[in-house]
Amino acid sequence: MTKIELITKKDLEELRLQLLEDLERLLKPKEKEQKDWVKSDEVRRILKISPGSLQNLRIRGLLNPKKIGGSYYYQKKEIENLFK
User: What pLDDT score does 33 carry?
Assistant: First the structure.
């Protein structure tokens, strides 16, 4: 014999709430990580500089980005230290 289980609206609502909690928990660390690292366009916007000026900061060693998939990522702490 095959056992049939019925799913109620309450069961679906509990599942939905659990999924939302799980997603929120999983995404929170990534949000923090993304805030610590910013892409070139955001750095240029923050510093109000051109792409060439940003390249000069890299060449002079004032900013040490990580290159991932063709994009540079900069630590916000390094950007803040430029003003100290």
Answer: 56
State the pTM of this model: 0.57
Contact criterion met (CB below 8 Å) for 74 and 37: yes
Q: What's the one-letter identity of residue 27?
A: L
Model pLDDT, residue 42: 93
CATH architecture of 9-81: Orthogonal Bundle (1.10)
Quote the CA–CA distance of 39 and 75 in Å, as a whole number: 9
Residue 31 carries which side chain, given as an amino acid letter? E
Residue 63 amino acid letter: L
Q: Taking the domains of the chain in order of start, what are their residue ranges?
A: 9-81
SS3 at position 7: coil
